[in-house]
Structure to design on (81 residues):
């Protein structure tokens, strides 16, 4: 299912980005559903990674992202290394 979510993101992002950001259903899908589905893929990993995805904060990002974070290093896309 993660592959389908990523395909949806790739196919629809440009169109959705032209819409209003606030309370956008697609933005919520990326922030929540995509991250949850990606986290499911890590069930058999021996260590715990945090998974986050975003389309921007307050405005649409030029590029949406999905990140896997080692909490011993960072929990943010803007901090750590």
């Amino acid at each position: 299912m993660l592959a389908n979510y990523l395909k949806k993101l790739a196919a629809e992002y440009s169109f959705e980005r032209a819409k209003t950001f606030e309370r956008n259903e697609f933005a919520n899908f990326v922030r929540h559903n995509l991250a949850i589905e990606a986290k499911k893929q890590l069930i058999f990993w021996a260590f715990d990674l945090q998974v986050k995805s975003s389309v921007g904060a307050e405005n649409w990002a030029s590029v949406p992202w999905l990140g896997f974070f080692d909490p011993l290093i960072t929990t943010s896309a803007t901090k750590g290394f």
About this structure: Residues 2-69 form one domain.
